Amino acid sequence: MIEISNLHKSFGAKKVLNGVSFNISPGRTLCLIGKSGCGKSVLLKHIVGLLEADQGFVKVDGKVVGAMKKKDIFGIRRKMGFVFQGAALFDSYNVFENIVISLYEHGEKDRNVLEKEAKRVLSAVGLLPDIDDCSQEEFNDEWEILSKKKPSDLSGGMRKRVGVARALVGSPDYIFYDEPTTGLDPVTSDRIDALIANLADKLNVTSIVITHDLFSVAKLAENVVMLDNGKVRFEGRPEELKESKDEVVLEFLKRYS
Length: 257
Ligand SMILES: Nc1ncnc2c1ncn2[C@@H]1O[C@H](COP(=O)(O)OP(=O)(O)OP(=O)(O)O)[C@@H](O)[C@H]1O
Ligand SMILES: [Mg+2]
Hints:
- This protein has two domains: 1-79 and 173-183 and 206-257, P-loop containing nucleotide triphosphate hydrolases (Rossmann fold, 3-Layer(aba) Sandwich), CATH 3.40.50; 89-171, P-loop containing nucleotide triphosphate hydrolases (Rossmann fold, 3-Layer(aba) Sandwich), CATH 3.40.50.
- Helix content is 42%, strand content 23%.
- It has ten helices and ten strands.
- The strands form two sheets. Strands 6-7-8-3-9-10 form a six-stranded mixed β-sheet, with helices on both faces.
- α3 crosses α4, α3 (95-105) packs parallel to α6 (156-168) and α4 (111-124) crosses α6.
- The chain is globular.
- Bound molecules: adenosine-5'-triphosphate (ATP) and magnesium ion.
- Residues 11, 16, 34, 36-42, 85 line the site of adenosine-5'-triphosphate (ATP).
- Residues 40-41, 85, 178 line the site of magnesium ion.
């Protein structure tokens, strides 16, 4: 369960969040929408403890995120996977290294453990075949080719999948996606949406998806929150969003449909 309560955040004189409150129940998928610059990424960074609120709090599983000791923040972050805006892979690292970097930096140095986890998450996002659906030899061949590729050798859609795979390391309870389909063509976007829906379903994770894409909202969201001017302007189901008479919502729908 994630509870966001009366969150305020300013950068200098600029007020970005001005009393944002809403909850996300376990296992649900929530889409967070709103104009560019309205504070969606800033809000997500508060949830994962990368930014500290001026006022208000975020609670994850009953614990206030900002007030934690460093050690506890790491504990809570381990329950969270984060797909950053723009995929944000390390260009000089190959796929395997990109995926296990955080595990490695947290002390897991056993190559077998790291490889096993990388194989598991790459299968989960469909970049490797399901180990039960092919021979060990086939699987290993594909792994050898994929794991050594650099981000520049991958298509945009594949890079996003690697970004999602990285977020799945350690089997988190929560996955946050910051604009996972921005910049992708419609077919590839659909595939990423299908992957997000499939993971939510199969792994029963709680997901927050930041998006400008109303097709994605319609396909993925059980709940929608729209930020505007530092506050929650709309909160409800996607069907309710479509029927909203609120002028700010209508303007957003017109602009992004
Ligand atoms: N670390 C920071 N220091 C100063 N200002 C910041 C910082 N992070 C974000 N901002 C400002 O806060 C505002 C909200 O930024 P944010 O990245 O959350 O927007 P967004 O809703 O995610 O937009 P987009 O849809 O374009 O990604 C912007 O005006 C941004 O410039
Ligand atoms: Mg953003």
